[in-house]
């Protein structure tokens, strides 16, 4: 006996502006059922089902048609979006992934750790004496943008351009894509100029850095074309900036609710890596991972029709009491893996970078910003899709 | 060369099967299957598979 999606409840209105993916409503539904129906398709709420569907052979990544769904079918943005390795499937995807992977290896990233540490210290020095800051504007944004500048070998003082143009590109992920298109395409053009200059430079002056490795990426006599390279560089700026900025802000939010864990992190910086994992389990910026059914198939008694959009709720999975017990936040605990970096063939390409830069930043922040507390005036992105603080004013006691 | 995968760590993301299909495959259930021994001629791609594994579950050599 199987059921089809249209026959059953529970239902979530995820396009309602008041919808919050971390609300009690979602947690109550999680107790009733492993999934809910939504305006888009289905939302998967429990850990085991998210884990299996994330890597399910009958599903593909689900956002390739996003521009077309919003009436954008041609032009530079549509072409760039279509070029994303995230929006490719099968051998076309695997080829790009094979060519891009070596530049993102943890071995190459490891050499950048001292620069991440120096950057975090410099940023904290600039505001610490005040005893308060807007954590987004004064730390998360410059840190995320300058990490990208360091990786690409761009002048770090140009971080505001990276931040601004990436934020403009981010408008493309919203429902006002079509009306914002002229502005989005201007930002895209600006970032392509950076990419072109970088590629030309590394072809002339090859080194051992990330950008050089990417430019000379080669496998079985195949390599990235110039267009593929410039598309990839712009994607990495865009994909790396927003997510890191948001995830750092969410980390601060979570730690302000758990001062004992902040103290622990300050006293033992080697917990930085585990702190990142624990934050991404309970408060991931990527609130849902999108998949689409390639063909009709059965899953746990449910018939999922070809073309159905499936949102895998990462925070709901990460706090599922069936797997993680009572709500808790403990940076020393051994946990099952979280899905804040997605998973399967499309597992986040930049996760070693993100893990490395955040695991350096958080312990240093914990040592220098004692007893952080929220101040009024915080503003947040909607609590769905990709979320995080737009502004996050905090106060703290400075420490050396 | 010898390949060992820590199956307790493996999460079946399949990045190794993309990097080195000569030794790693995902079956119809989406689970990893791999060879225990491959020719040294494939050393470069096997090393890439080990490098790219998100949970670093692949060990090369004895």
TrEMBL record, chain A:
Organism: Nocardioides panacihumi
Coiled coil segments of this chain: none
InterPro entries found in the cross-reference section: Cyt_P450 (IPR001128), Cyt_P450_B (IPR002397), Cyt_P450_CS (IPR017972), Cyt_P450_sf (IPR036396)
UniProt-annotated stretches for the region Disordered: 376-400
Protein family (similarity comment): Belongs to the cytochrome P450 family.
Name used for this protein in its record: Cytochrome P450
Organism taxonomic ancestry: Bacteria, Bacillati, Actinomycetota, Actinomycetes, Propionibacteriales
Gene3D superfamilies: Cytochrome P450
One Pfam assignment: p450
Keyword terms, alphabetized: Heme, Iron, Metal-binding, Monooxygenase, Oxidoreductase
Automatic annotation (TrEMBL), chain B:
Protein name as annotated: Ferredoxin
Pfam families per the UniProt record, alphabetical: Fer4_15
Cofactor(s) needed for function: [3Fe-4S] cluster
PANTHER family to which the protein is assigned, alphabetical: FERREDOXIN
Entry keyword set: 3Fe-4S, Electron transport, Iron, Iron-sulfur, Metal-binding, Transport
Keyword presence, GTP-binding: no
InterPro entries: Fe-S_cluster_ET
